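Hello,

I think I submitted the magnesium ion job twice by accident. Can you confirm which output corresponds to this input? Input:
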Amino acid sequence: MTNSVSLLPGGNAASSASTASNSAFEPLTLGVMGGGQLGRMFVHAAQSMGYFTAVLDPDANSPAGRVSHRHIQTDYTDPKGLQQLAECSAAITTEFENVPAPALRELAKLRPVAPGADAVAIAQDRAAEKAHFVKCGVPCAPYALIETATQLEEALSTNLLPGILKTSRMGYDGKGQVRIKDADALRAAWQDLKQVPCVLEKMLPLALECSVIVARGCDGQMVNFPVQRNLHREGILAVTEVYEGHLPQALQQQAVAAARSIAEGVNYVGVLCVEFFVLQDGSMVVNEMAPRPHNSGHYTLDACDQSQFDLQVRTLAGLPLTQPRQHSAAIMLNLLGDVWFDTNNTLRLPDWAAVLALPGTHLHLYGKTEARKARKMGHLNVTGASVEQVRAVALKAAAILGIEAF
Ligand code: ATP
Ligand code: MG
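Support: Only one job matched these inputs. Its output is below.
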């Protein structure tokens, strides 16, 4: 992103390029590709700093579109929609990694775009992503590319089983992944996945999972949040914990250093999340990266002096970055649609009053009107002065909501 002038909150008299549809000192508009919950929280952060916002998303009821000043309701590749977004926005970001990279390239001809299309394109393709990790000297799980039947047969002799077959593109929340025990299962699974390009990854003995969020400005300055410890259930993030002693110091340092070199290696601008596996022998490998704020960083909304979305705004607008500080111990519970169903599988409204009666609970709902199992509907942050207090409250909240203890 070439963003030589800061896009200051509350207007920017100095920059004519960035004031296309805003006169001096009128709020500038920040644009976002995608209208999901991450876009919604970006919009909230941008608006609280005085920016106007524009969201491009085809869905009339998208969580971000509903709270944005402008909602351009077209497909992500629609030239007219992209033109409109560029015309009204001083700079544009993205909120989900499957926004087509060519659309970001088009936008970048007209406006600063962060993160850039090249970084997003790498994160969109597991094969390219793994190659990038290797280039940056960060180890990942042993894997083989499976794009042809010959490659599949060759992969069988590489000691990758038991493994996980993952589609190279368009996977999220464990979708497009099949756990594989033997050769026949691998052949069948690749058929079922319509023989699209995949990677076969060795199934690793995990001790724990963690992730770290870094923010990098267009001048190369970088800051990071504390490393968060994550619990996944059925391929979906369930719980994130961040407090004193939740992870060994050495692991945290290793994760931060790896995430920083992964961001630097692609000249990244924006907020980047890197997910890691810690193996039972104590070693760490990188799993994947997300070129945007991440579900595991939602605790920053209530437990840190700046949230991951605040830093997305700052990196996009070319504003200064300062190292964020966590002021409270935190546990985040993901609120999947499952919470809206009782043990008889009947739809119900979760008992928010009981949850909010607990100290240090912060409820975030994304404004989705239809609860479906495994659908991310919101999250609950629990914050407090001590680990013990936060754990006790989070476990009580989980019990009220029917979320399995952790
Ligand atoms: P996301 O929603 O984070 O983008 P995704 O669909 O891209 O998820 P992954 O992060 O690749 O999926 O995997 C989801 C989860 O499956 C991981 O968090 C981990 O719990 C498990 N998993 C994935 N790969 C492996 C592996 N090689 N060995 C052991 N467990 C794995
Ligand atoms: Mg993942």
